[in-house]
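pasting for the record
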Amino acid sequence: MANSCRNEESIRNVDTTEIQGLDIPLVTFMEKKLENLHPLSSDCCIYRVPKKLHKINEAAYAPLRVSIGPFHHGKEGLEAMEEHKWRYLHNFLQHTQKGLAEFVKFIKEKEEKVRQCYAETIDFGSDEFVKIILVDAAFIIEVLLKYRFSNMIDKNDRIFRKPWMITDINRDLRLIENQLPFFILEDLFKKANITTSLSQNDNLSIIELTRNYYKTSIGLEAKIERSNCTEVEHFIDFLRICLNPSKPRSEPQRQKMVSIHLRCATELDEAGVKFFVGSSKNLFDIRFKNGILEIPQLRVTDVTESLLRNILAFEQCHYGTSYISDYVALMNGLINTRKDVELLVGRKVIGNWLGNSEDVSTLFSKLGKEIMLDKDTFYFSRLQDQLDDYCNSNWHKWKANLKHNYFKTPWAIISIIAGFSLLVLTAIQTVCSIISAT
């Protein structure tokens, strides 16, 4: 023990000047590395998709036609759209009274702030980075304007005059890795001060153009108008805000949930729960009362998976609250097999635009993989408690058993009534015989 103390004391008394004076290449390299570390910014909001999510469906996160921002710039297969983006930059400049040099200078001044929005260090030099941001931002602004005002679309436009092209671009603008910070779109639009026949639209803004753009293009019911977008990070964040619940999470009936366990639709149906489609446009407005589960309709189309996957990925990377994850978990719990899908489609809770019930079941099964849930903040915890209490009631079990086993068809009901009537008549006959005998 004494020797150990003396060794520690000798280590502390080493002449540090000897270590500092050593010319060790590794130390020099590491010191420079430490000096060049970029400070972490609170502005970070654009991420690469986590590998655990990416491996489930890589295609859901990859752009088909157009790269936006630095992550996919120059990617093979997207080169053809670059010329169209430059054409849209030319259109953008024609709609303003300012020159290209002024906009380059404008983006240059905001370069550092834009870089800080990306979760990874961007290797592009200053000039290349500024070029990417300006061309892509002008392209997006022109897409929003043309989508709102069809008279701005040139007769030879190769994007809006080709339905398959604009459909792919709509999809690509909803990818987490294919985003520009929303503030740069706002600032550039204000700077441009678009002067065309639209000048009578004094309230025209990027946020209004964005609302208009996503009113019909996302394929999910959402109250776009209600969203408070003063702090929107980018398009994916805008969509998440629009889809988020209109009401805060209710506290669960019990103090703390043991686990998240959601019964499938057929199990609930067998327990006597009745499904009705809700009238609300918000997917989270799900209510259960007196045995009736009211759920707003979800339209499942060929863009649903990609859209939800990218919102989920952003939510898991950026937010502490996991509303969309909770919703996907709920739907994944309700849908285990094609029979669950067929039941919900029959009740109009799901609008199946994929055609195949098995495809819908598989979609939610895959969406439910690798998402993080917190049982203490699960949005539907109260709903789970209500459904559990209802299904565990012996009275409801007895009614459901009677319905499913004895009242499945009209003939079964007629047989039950006939049998009951015969029993009553027999009892009456017996009573009458006893009375007459006395």
